[in-house]
Amino acid sequence: MGRGRAAGLAALALAVLPGCVSLTPRSRTPSPEARVVHGVSAPVFEDDRCGPGSLSVVLRAHGETVSARDLEVLLPEAPRRGVLSVDMLIAARQRGFDAALVTGTAEAVRGELAEGRPAILMLRLLDAPGARRDIYHYVVVDGFDPSRGLFQFQFGDGKARWAQLESLEKSWKPAGHALLVVRSRAGTDATLAHAVVLEGQGRLQEADALYRQVLVVRPESVRTWVNLGNVAADQGRREESEGAYRRALEIAPDDRDALNNLAWLLLAEGTRFEEAETLATRAANQPGPDQSLAQDTLGRIQLARGRCEEAVRTFREALEAAALPETTQVGLRTRLERARACSPR
Amino acid sequence: MDKTRARRFVVLLSAAWLAGVAAPVAAERIASKAEAPAAAERIVAKAESRSASRATDHARVSDAVARDEVAGALAAQGLTAEGVEERLVRLSDEDLRRLAANLDQVQAAGTQVPDYIWILLGIFLAVTILAVIF
């Protein structure tokens, strides 16, 4: 081989290989401010079973006593080897956790770590020639150094590595920035309850942020969508509020709170009375707590549309409910009187 | 207060009252609530039961498209039709939307880098060193 050809081959190798193979990042020294999630030790994923290995590390950090071997039942090997990302998601839920596979960002990873929750990243280690031959790997991120912008990664070889997230970008991007977040259900319940308290105190932005956190792992939570709609409405973000209520109704078409509050929003807007009445009628026809509030909304819509007799009937029915708060009773009586006095259109 | 002013006050008051009747005043909204702890199970169960009947729910076009795209990505991983369906029924609509928006995330991870890659890497490195030396 001539020197020129050899040099050409070498140049080609240097150009192509680094683009195909991603090696583990060189670990850097963290600052004293670095914090690691409690309960995570430098694990070794046996036989490169990084799926069960990484998930067991994360679940153990949540206090769950589970080994990688225990999880293998829930994480079958995919036909072309390895464990599917969706199987990781499903397995976390089957173990009783809230989980989501999201498109990750440094901010999202920091957010999880700040709450003491390790997360799992999927990386592409090898861009092999040919279809479906790429090699992917799960790593756990379990520490953050705010001072130096470093994260601690567990690749499963028993060594913890501190590195910047950007150093993994070449591997993370081809995996769609896949980030598996896992949270305890009790933790999510507590976040939701805390958000409701904050909302009640008028700390709407904080409540809004927490509701969005809940929706990451419970995207089908009707309650959270309704609450988010309420906060958006209180902040004057009408379109966003409407979108949140409509999302709640997509998930649960008969949810009274979503029906009533969307009707309420449309009534306040003052242009879409017909739809508002349809929604409010459906809400008011459901027995149970808050029925009188839905009847109140319906009565007001009927009144606004000049249908005074119907409004009188609706307000009367609302007043028949047992154990109404005094303020609600006073309001309903006032509106009943107005309905009695109004002239039909 | 003379009679004229008193009459004007009554008229304004009546007008305000009538405006209150006719105008679309805001009703009382149902306040935000926190879910009971058991609700999480209900959500998962509901998502699963809805997913099971999702096949017949083609009215929701966007969900159906997302479902098909994710199904295609799972099949490309070598899963059988049953294997694909088994996964789909366990994913919520929102999961499917998220995955359909980023199909690169539908992968299997955990296979070892084949030996031939390391051999190739070694050969290329050897050639590079030789090229530099000679």
Describe this structure in words.
- The complex is a heterodimer of chains A (345) and B (134).
- By secondary structure, chain A is an alpha+beta fold.
- Chain A is 53% helix and 13% strand.
- Chain A has helices spanning 3-20, 50-61, 68-71, 85-94, 106-114, 169-172, 185-200, 204-217, 222-234, 238-251, 256-269, 273-284, 291-304, 308-319, 326-341; strands at 35-36, 83-84, 97-103, 119-126, 135-145, 150-154, 160-163, 178-184.
- In chain A, strands 1, 3, 4, 5, 6, 7 and 8 form a seven-stranded antiparallel beta sheet that branches.
- In chain A, α7 packs antiparallel against α8 (204-217) and α9 (222-234) runs parallel beside α11 (256-269).
- The radius of gyration of chain A is 28 Å and the shape is elongated.
- Residues 10-19 of chain A have low confidence and may be disordered.
- Chain B is mainly α.
- In chain B, 63% of the residues lie in helices and 1% in strands.
- Chain B has six helices and one strand.
- Chain B has helices at residues 3-22, 39-52, 61-75, 81-88, 93-100, 115-133, and one strand at 108-109.
- Chain B starts with a helix and ends with a helix.
- Mean pLDDT of chain B is 71; it is low at 9-26, 37-49 and 51-59.
- Classes of the chains: A alpha+beta (345), B mainly alpha (134).
- The interface between A and B is large, with 97 and 63 residues.
- β2 (83-84) of chain A pairs antiparallel with β1 of chain B, so a sheet runs across the interface.
